Fold U6 snRNA phosphodiesterase.
Amino acid sequence: MTLVQYSDSESDSEPRYSPRPVKKPRHDINPGPSLPPLPAAFHNLYASSTRVSVQDNPSLHGGRKRVIPHVEGNWPTHLYLEWYPEKGELSLLADVIAQCGYLPDENASTVHSLLHSDLGAQLPLHISLSRPVVLRTEQRVSFNEALRKAIHDSHVSSFNVQPDTLYWSSNFEKTRWFLVLGVQRPRHDALNRLLKLSSDTLARFGQPPLYASSSTREQNSASPFHRSSSLNSEDFSGCFHISLAWSLSEPSAKERERVAEIDLRALRNIHVGFDSVKAKIGNVVGSIPLEKSS
């Protein structure tokens, strides 16, 4: 016995169920943004790079070598200012990187972008306030407290910087070269002030500063910080930069010339805002707020 019976008058060619009405597409005259941006605190929950192996295996990291060997009880530490570019800014930065990339008719270096991960996720960019250093397990809490107090007592306010120059610069070990954006000196000299606070705090824990007046000049001879004759041991305005891409090979003279010829007018209109200092100890990122700018 069938569960549902139909009358003989119904045609087999007619559908036995009423078709579902098709909804008309909705057209918004003023469509809003697809998704709201993630809150700044979200990015502190997860480190942008995680350790895949405790062994130094360059094949896991695109040929990069570990700067600080893994030792039990040691915590790699980095102090920096973080920037997540907006969509339009990302497009401008990607275009600049593309202009510096590999050309088929040249034996040029392979350039790796720092804008996105291998899976396509956006990565934060940064201005460093320290080199990669090492803290011992027992130093982590006291270092974090000392740095927070120093920044709080300094009354440094949130500030903006604008990109200024583009050039290649190596790391301290000369194992990698970075395509970097130099930035203009911000109002109230905030970068130099934060660098001094970071360096003084690191020195209390036996760690070296990021920049030293003579060694920095020798190491970054290709950078434009020689443009100012007024630089002294306390002024490193020409050293601060934002890394955009990296290469394992030292750029040739022709590659450096190509970078120097890139039009940066659109990038110079970008205002990069900073309202906190990031302290990454191991894979834990702490955020130390700056005073609100009046």
In short: Residues 3-19, 24-32, 214-232 have pLDDT under 50 and may be disordered. Residues 140-154 form the longest helix (15 residues). The longest strand covers residues 74-83. The domain at 73-210+235-289 is CATH 3.90.1140.10 (Cyclic Phosphodiesterase; Chain: A,).
